[in-house]
Amino acid sequence: MSQSSGSASLPASLSNSSWFQSLPADLQHWLQQHARLLVLPAGQRLFARGDAADGLYGLAEGLVRISGSDASGQEAIAAVLAPPQWFGEIALFDAASRTHDAWTDSTVTLVHVPQAPLLALLAAQPQYWRDLGRLLSQKVRASFIAMEDLMLLPPGPRLARRLLQMSNSYGALQGSTLRELPLSQTRLAAMLALSRQTVNQQLQVMAAAGLLRLRRGVVEIVDQPGLQLLAAQAREDVGYQAAIDK
């Protein structure tokens, strides 16, 4: 693990993120001054469920897996975060422990804003709570959408919607999307409560329709409008095959 102290500038992916760009200039400057740059290898745990909150994180490069596991070690993946995601703000609001584990799924570059100075800032400048609240509300919206998809959508549209959400980094990207998603089919299956076989079948159908290109550990979105059309099919009787054949 490598680590450097706070810098007067953030990685470009984070400073250009939609949330950071929406912040008041003074808050942007404060975060730039207090963020510590971290470079971590794959397979490192940032924090565990039940840990005391240690601050806010911003992901500049790589992937971070947010998950929970039961006593047998079976893992449920809530999300795989891609740049430029900011995360860790939930415990800032309720002063409770971490809700999930956070693992690096690749070599990552991120920034860490420690909890104590952040709370001191918010005590002195309470108007900034609203800015942190907007970051939290993005997570709440994404969670409700994911729950609805899980209950209502058949596998094809469910998978398409999740790929589109990830290509926009769950709303964190501003005016652009990620074309290549470094994701294994096992990870996708765990995120969507589907079997790996089902995920593979749906990916192959989408690839055959020209929506995606598949490589080992990578899903490339080739036809975003076509994928959006598929994602809009909210019921099986609308016709999954008809949607992708257009």
From TrEMBL:
Per its UniProt record, what Pfam families does this chain match? cNMP_binding, HTH_Crp_2
Alphabetical GO CC annotations of the entry are: cytosol
- Gene3D superfamilies listed in its UniProt record: Jelly Rolls, Winged helix-like DNA-binding domain superfamily/Winged helix DNA-binding domain
Q: Which InterPro entries match?
A: cNMP-bd_dom, cNMP-bd_dom_sf, Env_Response_Regulators, HTH_CRP, RmlC-like_jellyroll, WH-like_DNA-bd_sf, WH_DNA-bd_sf
GO MF entries: DNA binding; DNA-binding transcription factor activity
Every HTH crp-type domain range: 153-225
Domain spans labelled Cyclic nucleotide-binding: 19-122
Keyword match Transcription: yes
Question: Is Transcription included in the keywords of this UniProt record?
Answer: yes
Query: What keywords does the record list, in alphabetical order?
Result: DNA-binding, Transcription, Transcription regulation
The protein's name is: Transcriptional regulator, Crp/Fnr family
Source species: Aquitalea magnusonii
